[in-house]
Design brief:
This protein is an alpha/beta fold and about 400 residues long. The chain is built from 13 helices and 14 strands. Helix 4 packs parallel to helix 10. The relative contact order is 0.17.
Length: about 400
């Protein structure tokens, strides 16, 4: 079988594969705990569910414009005004089948073969593959100081004549850190001065803890004209717990939005009209669910930090937001794929190998599940890895005895 050169370089999504693995184990009745997932467990807003049900009841489930229905685009405009203090027009907005598609279409619209896209490590697993799908070259950047927080000079030193864009995810998946105001201000100014596209992946924008406020890239932009190369990506998946609705959006210059809409029109056309109405209702409806989710996640984060801090040899930086943390498990093994497989095989806890995010020896853990899953999951991992822990453990009344060193 002959496949394209690009296709041969693309690996499957590690996170989606692990979701599938967890689902299969649960279907078999195994007592699996999924600490690798990125789905809040709260329900979608009632406004969204009601809007979707009403649309279905109408029977008018038809094609939509490739850039989204007017109702949703108006809601995105209001959202951008309220949370970014930026007034945009309908021609600046494109709704997509999730923030992932919005990023993908943006990259297809701006990246030529062999051009480079820079992003800090650790990074979301899909960034390198998305760039490669456009024929571009992904350029991950590890902060020189060994932290998860890049400095402007870390980015500056890898920018070259083929650099087309910088991509920033803040707060960051997988580490949960929130980049500093100084860094965001600096990267906005730097990209403007060098005429480089800046893609702000703000999908976790409002999921921040400890009284922090979301950082707004527009506050630091000097050029907000139609020449601006600032692209802001967001969606309803995370903050509204609407992962299965697959609605995201982009806000960019009118010309770029037009080009992106042309691409999306040939790819998939517009997203489902039912799901667009649901997303519009979530954006325009009662927002208390976002605050409630944030409070739940902050509490869960605190519990996971307590559990991990009692784990000998594991180092973890407390997340500022999202629903992930990124502990360093390298004391138990430098190969994060083998480490994740070992934990899955021995105690049926699903984690995501750090190498998928650009840093081996780490595991991404999610605390968006139940408190019981967090405490029991870390307890199982500790029993499997830490030889100073008790030699026996009970999992669903089944006694396991550690017989490895």
């Amino acid at each position: 079988m002959s496949i394209s050169l690009i296709a041969s370089t693309i690996s499957e999504s590690a996170t989606l594969k692990l979701n599938e693995t967890a689902a299969l184990l649960r279907a078999k009745g195994d007592p699996v705990i999924h600490l690798g997932g990125g789905e809040p467990k709260s329900k979608a807003p009632l406004d969204a569910l009601t809007a979707a049900a009403g649309m279905l009841s109408s029977g008018e489930v038809r094609y939509t414009p490739p850039d989204g229905i007017p109702t949703l685009r108006k809601a995105i405009i209001r959202y951008t005004d309220e949370f970014y203090h930026r007034k945009v027009e309908p021609e600046n907005v494109m709704a997509s089948g999730g923030a992932k598609q919005a990023i993908m279409v943006a990259l297809q619209a701006i990246v030529n073969p062999q051009e480079e896209v820079i992003f800090p490590a650790p990074y979301w697993v899909s960034y390198p593959e998305m760039v490669k799908l456009c024929g571009g070259i992904p350029v991950p950047v590890k902060p020189e100081d060994g932290t998860f927080r890049p400095r402007l000079q870390d980015i500056e030193q890898v920018v070259g004549p083929y650099t087309k864009a910088v991509m920033i995810n803040n707060p960051n998946n997988p580490a949960g850190v929130m980049y500093s105001e100084e860094f965001i201000a600096g990267i906005v100014e730097f990209c403007e001065s060098r005429d480089i596209y800046l893609i702000m992946d703000d999908i976790y924008q409002r999921l921040v803890f400890d009284g922090r406020k979301p950082l707004n890239c527009y506050d630091y932009a000097k050029d907000l004209s139609e020449n601006s190369k600032l692209i802001v990506i967001n969606g309803v998946s995370k903050q509204y717990a609407m992962t299965g609705f697959r609605i995201g959006w982009s806000v960019a210059s009118k010309r770029l939005t037009e080009v992106m809409t042309n691409i999306q029109g040939h790819q998939t056309s517009g997203p489902s009209v039912v799901l667009q109405h649901a997303a519009a209702a979530a954006l325009s409806g009662v927002q208390s669910g976002v605050d409630s989710l944030c409070a739940t996640l902050e509490n869960n984060r605190n519990i996971m930090m307590t559990e991990l801090n009692g784990f000998d040899g594991v180092h973890v930086e407390q997340p500022d937001g999202t629903f992930y943390c990124f502990p360093d498990f390298s004391v138990y093994g430098k190969d994060s794929v083998k480490l994740a497989q070992f934990v899955l095989d021995k105690v049926q806890v699903v984690t995501v190998p750090g190498v998928e995010f650009g840093m081996d020896g780490y595991l991404r853990l999610s605390y968006c599940g139940s408190v019981k899953d967090i405490t029991e999951g870390i307890e199982r991992m500790k029993w499997a890895l830490d030889l100073n822990s008790p030699n026996e453990i009970y999992i669903n009344e089944r006694k396991l005895v550690r017989d490895w060193a």
